[in-house]
Design goal:
Layout (H helix, E strand, L loop, with lengths): L6 H6 L6 H8 L1 H14 L9 H15 L2 H8 L11 H16 L6 H9 L4 H27 L37 E5 L11 H9 L6 H6 L3 H15 L7 H15 L2 H14 L4 H9 L12 H14 L7 H9 L4 H24 E5 L2
Antiparallel strand pairs: 1-2
Helix pairs in contact: 3-11, 4-5, 4-6, 4-8, 6-7, 6-8, 8-17, 11-17, 12-13, 12-15, 12-17, 13-14, 15-16, 15-17
């Protein structure tokens, strides 16, 4: 697969002289590694995931997520006649895909086990999981940038409410599972077999040590596709650990908003805690977000800036995407510049990817 230029810029016809183009260059770590992740995922084939099937699945994901622009690109990359999906091998996998696109909190161990029992090895399954969740990230990034660039005419939609979350008292391994959002530190257990450290190559082990991931069950699971994991980690750092632009606590806060929409208690705990650490005077706001009950509007009772950030973050996180131009206009009126808006969109879009991996590969448990 040969891509002549950055795919995102190509699809949105980004003017190289624009402020948005300049902002994407400033955030070159995230921009460049996003492109590399795209090229790596779609050039990594497996027994069940030929490139044609990968593009077919990507089109389905993009369409359901709400990015027709991205879906139309993917549909041009394969011939329908090449797609042969044996029900015995693919029905459970397609069911898994549908759930993590539209209702990620409904993923469970039985859903994952059904895919493995139909003949998928962990490495193949992790490629599927990364592909699907990556495309949900791409779709939200593209639609957010179209809004930012004045290329979207989406209609105003009602305020977004908090999604459902875990109500089961114990995990599959019998640990106590959290049933409320919290800033406390949580553990996470996998529904699949993570890699043993001894099976990592020297290069894989060195990368994971450098990233601080070598002792994490979650990252050792993702290491079944170690190059994708490396690129994903670099994208994460290019979005959340960069100077200037949107204050870092607001990026972490946006991640917590997305996690409330998707019902990911684990991700919310990590990023709400980071937001509180970075902005200790905003802890009450962050606690209020976490306390929002299922069905209650997320964006309420904050100051004007946090209200606008919450509203947009939640709308860009829905499936299908429901963000609209007036939300960007409000943020601009509150003083957010192009780089800050790019940081916000990337933070939101990335957690579509992160939440769906966490929710569909394992579950959180309490450490106390």
């Amino acid at each position: 697969m040969i891509i002549q230029q950055d795919l995102i810029n190509q699809l949105i016809h980004l003017n190289p002289q624009s402020k948005l183009a300049e902002a994407r260059i400033i955030r070159d770590v995230a921009t460049d590694h996003l492109q590399l992740a795209f090229e790596t995922i779609f050039s990594t084939e497996s027994e069940h995931l030929t490139q044609s099937i990968q593009f077919y699945l990507a089109e389905q994901v993009a369409r359901k997520t709400g990015s027709d622009l991205l879906a139309d690109y993917y549909v041009e990359q394969f011939n329908a006649s090449d797609i042969q999906l044996n029900p015995t091998q693919y029905d459970s996998a397609l069911n898994y895909v549908d759930v993590i696109i539209e209702k990620p909190k409904q993923a469970n161990k039985a859903l994952v086990t059904a895919v493995i029992e139909s003949g998928w090895h962990e490495k193949d399954f992790l490629l599927l999981a990364q592909l699907v969740t990556f495309v949900t990230y791409q779709a939200r990034l593209i639609e957010g940038l179209l809004l930012l660039n004045g290329q979207s005419d989406r209609s105003i939609t009602p305020p977004v409410t908090a999604g459902i979350w875990n109500t089961v008292s114990h995990t599959a391994q019998g640990r106590i599972a959290p049933t409320a959002f919290t800033q406390d530190q949580l553990g996470w257990e996998s529904w699949l077999n993570a890699r043993d450290v001894s099976t990592l190559s020297d290069e894989e082990a060195n990368v994971m040590k450098k990233m601080g991931q070598i002792s994490s069950e979650y990252f050792l699971l993702l290491a079944h596709q170690s190059k994708i994991l490396e690129l994903r980690t670099l994208i994460d750092r290019g979005i959340f650990y960069t100077p200037e632009g949107l204050p870092r606590w607001e990026r972490e806060y946006a991640a917590a908003v997305v996690s409330k929409v998707n019902g990911c208690i684990y991700c919310a705990s990590v990023h709400a805690r980071k937001a509180s650490h970075l902005a200790k005077d905003r802890k009450n706001d962050i606690d209020q977000l976490l306390a929002t009950q299922t069905g209650e509007v997320l964006a309420q009772n904050f100051d004007e800036r946090l209200l606008a950030i919450t509203d947009f973050s939640a709308s860009l996180s829905t499936t299908p995407i429901s963000a609209y131009p007036i939300q960007i206009e409000r943020l601009r009126a509150l003083g957010l510049d192009e780089l800050e808006l790019l940081d916000l969109i990337q933070s939101i879009a990335f957690f579509s990817w992160a939440n769906r991996l966490m929710l569909s590969l394992g579950e959180a448990y309490e450490l106390n």
